[in-house]
């Protein structure tokens, strides 16, 4: 009876390592992509990754409108509380 452990004419037990090698290659490629390419792309959830609004996020637009005098302080805080609920910004973030 031929088995995988048969060293005489068979593939031997090392054949079991090929799936492990391929799995390591796939895991390594996904890890590399996550650390480089995918992380550099932003989405609406990454608009405040460091606690500060950046770019054209709704909170950044609101801040610019308040700074330019288009809206008053009461309206700013009211709209900011709605955006905090919608985008899941935590209270422990930057004010």
Précis, in short:
The protein has 95 residues and is mostly helical. 52% of the residues lie in helices and 0% in strands.
Topology:
Elements: H1 17-35, H2 37-40, H3 58-68, H4 73-87
List keywords for this structure.
95 residues; 4 helices; rod-shaped
| Average pLDDT for all residues | 75
- Please mark out the parts with pLDDT under 50 across 5 or more consecutive residues, or reply none: none
Helix content: 40-55%
How many DSSP helices? 4
> What Rg do the Cα atoms give?
27 Å
- Separation of termini? 73 Å
Give the total of beta strands.
0
How much strand? under 5%
Describe it for me?
By secondary structure, this protein is mostly helical. The protein is 52% helix and 0% strand. The protein has helices spanning 17-35, 37-40, 58-68, 73-87. Helix 3 (58-68) packs antiparallel against helix 4 (73-87). The longest helix is centred in the N-terminal third of the chain and has 19 residues, at 17-35. The termini are far apart. 1% of the residues are buried.
């Amino acid at each position: 009876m031929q088995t995988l452990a048969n060293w005489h004419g068979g593939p031997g037990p090392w054949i079991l390592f090929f799936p492990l090698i391929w799995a390591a290659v796939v895991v390594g490629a996904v890890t590399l992509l996550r650390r480089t390419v995918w992380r550099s792309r932003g989405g609406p959830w990454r608009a405040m990754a460091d606690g500060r609004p950046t770019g054209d996020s709704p909170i950044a637009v609101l801040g610019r409108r308040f700074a330019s005098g288009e809206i008053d302080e009461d309206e700013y805080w009211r709209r900011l509380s709605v955006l905090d609920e919608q985008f899941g910004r935590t209270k422990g973030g930057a004010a």
